[in-house]
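Suppose a colleague, Dr. K., hands you the sequence of a protein chain of 197 amino acids and asks what its three-dimensional shape might be. Before reaching for any lab equipment, you can write down a predicted structure in C-alpha cell form. Begin with the sequence itself:
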Amino acid sequence: MDDVLDAVGPRLRALRRERGITLADLAATTGVSESTLSRLESGQRRATLELLLPLAGTYGVPLDDLVGAPRTGDPRIHLKPIRRFGMVFVPLTRRPGGMQSFKMIIPARPEPLEPTLQTHEGFEWLYVLNGRLRLVLGERDLIVAPGEAAEFDTALPHWLGSADGGAVELLILFGPQGMRAHLRTGPSRSSHDGIEL
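The predicted structure, expressed as C-alpha cells, is then:
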C-alpha cells in the first residue's frame, strides 16, 4: 500500500505537465492551495481522498488512475460520464496526456443558451452525430450538421451549443497544443515536405 501511495506524487506531476497546466491554474480550479499541490507532487504530503477527488475531477480521470490501482480483471468497459457546463462528456480514452477522445452530449433546452466564449491551449476536432451544433469561433458563427466535422485551435475564442435548442451528440478529439487530428498535404509555402499547416 505504501508503494502505491508513494507513486501518486510523480504520477500527478506527470499528468499536470502532460496537460500543460501550472500549479497556479490547478490551485484555482481545485481550490487546493499551490503549496499543498506542490508538496503532494513531491511526496512531502500524503495523498488523501479529500485531495485526490478534486484532482480526478479536474483531469477527468477515474480516481483509480491517479493512484495506479490495479485492474480487477472485469472485461467490461465502464464509461463514466463527466458533467460540466451543463453538458455530458463520456471519455472514450483512458491514457493521460496526448490525444483524448470524448462523446459529448448537449442536452435539449427550451431556449438555446447565449454563447460564452473560452480559450485554452490545444487543438480540437469534432464530428456531429445527431442534432445541429452551433459553433462560434471568434467572429464566425457556424452551424455544423450531422455528418459534418470541424477542427480548430482552441486558443481561438470558441463556444459549442445547440443551434436550435435540440439535443446534440458529437465526437471530440482533443490534443495538446500543436497536435492535430490530421494534416492536409498540398503545395507548401516552405520546403517542409509539402505539408501546409
